[in-house]
Amino acid sequence: MKIEDYIDRISIWSGNIIRWLAVVLTIVVLSEVVARYFFNSPTIWAFDMAMMIYSVMFLFGAAWVLQIKAHIKVDVIQNMLPRRTQLILDLVYYIVFFFPFLFVMIVFGTKLAINMTIAGEISNTSQWLEPIWPWRWVIPAGFLLFLPQAVAEFIRIIKSLRTN
After folding, report:
1. Cβ-count burial of 109 within 10 angstroms (0-12 exposed, 13-18 middle, 19+ buried)?
2. What does pTM read for this prediction?
3. Residue range 100-141, pLDDT digits in tens
4. How many domains does the chain have?
């Protein structure tokens, strides 16, 4: 089995777990709606909890979405080009934009998470005053999960270039 296949398995496995957060998110939002509109007693925690759950879904699901090739890609002009040129453009995109972006998000996300952990950051925008420093770790963790899938896709592009 190729390394890309192992990476795909990890992305699929994480995606299958993370997608259940959509159910949790739905329950949180629904409970807020019921509390607010049926009992006239809004919660102080539901909005912030929904944002946190969504951010985990978004960042931890990115690798799976890349694996199933469901990220949005504007490729109207690129699709008119020969297949080999498309692959070369994809290769350039990964080298010039994608990998540097992942690097920045991992490095600076980790620095931010470390600083906010040390500071014991709490939310200053909600009455709940929940600690949000643990959620800062979602940024580097999500991008660290995203990186291997990006490497797998990069390897596939190189292999496709060799055969085209």
Report:
1. buried
2. 0.85
3. 999 999 999 999 999 999 998 988 877 888 888 888 999 999
4. 1
